[in-house]
Amino acid sequence: MNGAVVASPAPTGNAIIHLSNVTKSFGSVRALGGVEFRVSRGECLGLVGHNGAGKSTLMHMLAGTLRPTSGTISLDGADLKGYTVALAQQAGIRCVFQELSLCPNLSVTENTRMMHRHTGGFGWRRRFGNLIRMQLDAIFPDHGISADAIISDLSIGRRQMVEIARAFTVPNTRLVILDEPTSSLDANTASQLLGFVRRFIGDGGSVVLISHILGEILENCDRIIVMRDGQVSVDAPADSFDRSRLVQAMGSAHARTRESLASSTDRAQGPVMVRARPKFQRDETAVVAREGEVIGLAGFSGHGQTEILVEVFEAAGRRTTRTEAASSVALVAGDRQRDGVFPLWSIAQNITVRSLAALRQGPLLSPDRELAMATLWKTRIGIRTPDLNNPILSLSGGNQQKALFARALGSDARIVVMDDPMRGVDIGTKMDVYDLIRSEAAEGRTFLWYTTELEELENCDHIYVFRHGRIVADFAQGDLSEQQLIDASFREAT
Ligand SMILES: Nc1ncnc2c1ncn2[C@@H]1O[C@H](COP(=O)(O)OP(=O)(O)OP(=O)(O)O)[C@@H](O)[C@H]1O
Q1: The dihedral formed by the CA atoms of 64, 66, 67 and 72, expressed in degrees to the nearest 10
Q2: Residue ranges of the ABC transporter domain (predicted)?
Q3: Which of 12, 335, 400, 485 is the most buried (most CB within 10 A)?
Q4: Strand 70-75 vs strand 15-26: parallel, antiparallel, or unpaired?
Q5: What is the mean pLDDT of residues 106-126?
Q6: Which CATH number describes the domain made up of 263-490?
Q7: pLDDT of amino acid 137
Q8: What is the pLDDT of residues 48-86, one digit of tens each?
Q9: Residue of minimum CA distance from atom 31 in ligand 1
Q10: What is the pTM of this model?
Q11: Measured in angstroms, how far is the CA atom of residue 392 from the centroid of ligand 1?
Q12: Contacts of 147 by beta carbon, 8 Å cutoff, 6+ apart
């Protein structure tokens, strides 16, 4: 097992699926280098590892959407020559991948119907509408999603909820792979999902849970597999881990624990760079960001935080009735699939697109300058790729997100707005990015940062909590506890 540490593995006779000595290469990139992996009945298996460690590639093998370059796959103890998507589905294996697979121009009901190819007939719309509604109710009470809603009209969090609920609508489902299922969910919705996962396991189901939020893994899994550079580095019962052992096993240079990076200097005297009053605000309260401040936006997702960031982005260098941005603005999109990456462009082009003016040589763009800028950011932010001219989609999800950070931080924008930007970014990189944000803020850059992760708010100088499109509370750094944030998130504006 390639030097992996294995502690009291569950009996293999109980395995639903077993991958043995599996390798996978994409051209010169060896994504998996001889992996041993199994999932047993009735277990919640946590899968963690740095960005690009090979987790999603391994899950694609389980789903049958990728074939191993070498190695074997056995299902319920039987070795299979040609493992396919159809076989995986027949065996009750469902996958919810990081990059969501819903059809954006179809409704929630129609997308549910697609999971049930062999059933249809008269009245299918009502039947599948009821089915997805029931499943959403079971997992996310108070979800507020209509079965008739068109997917492209839903926020990324709600799309993620539909994608998850849809996977559980198929009757024979017995193993569900959840690849960073909570990355776009707020804390309340995430805990509803994890509660449901535990009930599903209690009823004999199995789940593979991939997450960079290590607390979720430690609290909800029975066994944890840590991947590192395409190999399993540790496979052990969850109760043999704590957070620091997990971080260490991932090979992160950043075993440091939570630490606030918020500024200790008082920036209250600097010039105002951003003033933004939400559209539905009934009083004069506004988000105010001074030069060099890192301002956090919090509250449950879909409560107006993204809208205010977009308004600031659009107001760059201008002043409107409600929004003022004193300088140029760069945006780090949270919904990278829809608003972030240019899918047909290279990694280098995706990084440099916000800085074209600075990369010109005469009237033309200089490829050398473009590559030099991309290379600088590849090193600064640790983008894992053998070649920056490769397509952006050849990167793992977390590495794509790093490229979006590089695009914004590498630009000359004085204001950076970030819409839940750490989606899928591993713990080591997060720590690097926190440091980067803090040092850029010390140089006078201003940040507006919407995040669904409480831990990240500790990096902010001031925090505004949103509810139903309005600011309902604001806290100076150090004044905010978890309970206060939850209470404020439920508070109605007066
Ligand atoms: N289609 C592809 N073409 C080329 N390389 C790929 C492709 N898919 C994955 N890779 C490479 O395989 C490696 C493993 O990627 P994978 O997506 O499995 O990582 P991961 O552990 O899921 O990362 P993350 O936490 O960022 O999602 C990476 O180096 C990635 O760039």
Answers
A1: -60
A2: 17-254, 266-493
A3: 400
A4: antiparallel
A5: 81
A6: 3.40.50.300
A7: 95
A8: 998 888 999 999 999 999 999 999 999 988 887 788 898
A9: 395
A10: 0.78
A11: 11
A12: 107, 108, 109, 112, 128, 129, 130, 132, 133
Residue-wise pLDDT tens digits, 191-220: 999 999 999 999 999 999 999 888 899 999
Q: Pick the atom of ligand 1 nearest to 50's CA.
A: 25
Alpha carbon nearest to ligand 1 atom 1, residue: 394
Q: What is the CA radius of gyration of the chain?
A: 23
pLDDT at residue 118 tops 70: no
Domain-wise residue ranges, the chain:
15-250, 263-490
Shortest-distance atom of ligand 1 to CA 398: 26
225 CA from centroid of ligand 1 (Å):
17
Residue 32 main-chain phi, psi, to 5 deg: -130, 130
The number of the ligand 1 atom at minimal distance from the alpha carbon of 426 is 25
Torsions phi, psi for 166 (to 5 deg): -60, -40
Residue nearest to atom 12 of ligand 1 (CA): 31
- Atom number in ligand 1 closest to CA 384: 29
- What are the tokens at 59? 């899950």
| Atom of ligand 1 at shortest range from CA of 49 | 21
Going by alpha carbons, the residue nearest to atom 17 of ligand 1 is 396
d(CA 432, CA 429): 5
Helix axes 367-381, 397-409, angle to 10 degrees: 120
Distances (CA, A) of 152 to 158, 209, 398: 10, 26, 23
The Cα–Cα gap between 448 and 369 comes to 29
Cα 202 to the center of its chain, rounded Å:
27
> Separation of 228 CA from ligand 1 center, angstroms?
12
Domains 15-250 and 263-490 share a fold: yes
Least confident span in 29-43, 430-444, 468-482 = 468-482
Asked whether the predicted pLDDT for residue 386 surpasses 70, the reply is yes
Q: Which atom of ligand 1 is nearest to the CA of 230?
A: 14
> CB under 6 Å to ligand 1: residues?
26, 29, 31, 49, 51-57, 98, 384, 394-399, 424, 426
Tell me the pLDDT tens digit for each residue of 239-279: 999 888 888 888 754 444 444 445 545 556 789 999 999 98
